[in-house]
Amino acid sequence: MDVAALREYLVGAGIAVQGDLRVELISGGRSNLTFKAYDDISTWVVRRPPTSGLTPSAHDMAREYTVISRLRGTSVPVAAAVAFDAEGAALGAPMTVVEYVDGSVIRDRTELAALTDAQVEASAKALVATLVDLHAVDYRAVGLENFGRPHEFVARQVALWARQWERVKTRELPDVAVLHAALAEAIPASSDASVIHGDFRIDNTILDSAAPDVIRAVVDWEMSTLGDPLTDIALMCVYRAPVFDLVLGVDAAWTSQRLPSPDALAQHYATLSGRDLADWNFYLALANFKLGVIGEGITHRALLGSDAGGDAHRAAEATPEFMAAGLRALRATSRAGSHSTELL
After folding, report:
1. How far is Cα 120 from Cα 3, in angstroms, rounded to an integer?
2. Which of 5, 103, 108, 318 has the greatest number of beta carbons closer than 10 A?
């Protein structure tokens, strides 16, 4: 972070900077880099893409800034947008500046241990309720009608992640082609459309430190778009798989057995949203397919020397398990109907 350049940009954008500007890295590695910037009076959050190992569409700063700007004032809690350097004039890469939202970010099981069992359950229910609120937003009314292409979204997702596999695979895995073919045959005839987050779980939110069942802000919107809302809740559920720890490289809070089961999360979503979880196992299979390819991609970039994550080379160990889980989900559908679930 070039602090002097950041200060010059903020001042040029009409943002008062009182005293020295200080900057601290909050998080980095496999997602966009996030910094806390503060002076004697104010605090902001600055986001920019990683310095290497970029993945197409995965670090879209304009997408982040657009969606939080439009969602401000809805029932979805987001940080207030402050400024956007689309051309990367200040730092050499696109940059967003938003308000700093004070609270707790629960990333790993050590941080989750600070919560009681009752708080953990209440937080999980609040997360599902927030996702329901997001999917209920009238995207046309808030000016997001051009934010994505919801028509045939699911079919494009199946094709997208198959293409991505060909770009990042580190070995041949027969289950990948089998699952891709099965998904292509099982694409639902119709689906709903809403704003979707694309990466929704506990560590992509800021919880109120005193009341962790209160979501103060949803963050990390770089994968958001207009699409099928069931892809969001299915991914949220599949993130609960213990093998996801290998993808993140940590003992993730969201994979902890203290949290509600994937089935419980899905049922709570259905109850609150009123949505029928039709073709549910298809959505679980698609989420597993996507996460398997993501894990492979992390290891692919690590082998090229472009990922700084300490355990990035192990992420692909999760890929066979995700592919197998996806196949089991589709087979469960054929045996017991579209509402049965079998994640692992």
Report:
1. 38
2. 318
Tell me how far apart the alpha carbons of residues 78 and 238 are, in angstroms, rounded to a whole number: 24
Alpha helices, H only, the chain:
3-12, 61-71, 109-112, 117-136, 153-168, 174-185, 229-238, 244-248, 262-273, 280-303, 319-336
Task: Convert the pLDDT of each residue in 297-332 to its tens digit.
Answer: 999 988 988 655 668 889 999 999 999 999 999 998
9-36 pLDDT, tens per residue? Answer: 999 999 999 999 999 998 755 567 889 9
At 163, which amino acid appears? R
DSSP run (H or E) holding 84: strand 81-85
Superfamily of domain 109-336: Aminoglycoside phosphotransferase (APH), C-terminal lobe (3.90.1200.10)
Task: Please list the alpha-helical segments (H only) found in 36-78.
Answer: 61-71
CATH code matching the domain that covers 3-99, chosen among 1.10.530.10, 3.40.140.10, 3.90.1150.10, 3.30.200.20: 3.30.200.20
C-beta of residue 219 within 8 angstroms of C-beta of residue 271: no
User: Counting every residue, how long is the chain?
Assistant: 344
Name the residue with tokens 């600070």. Answer: 114
Radius of gyration for the chain, computed over Cα atoms and rounded to the nearest angstrom: 20
Beta bridge partners of 226: 195
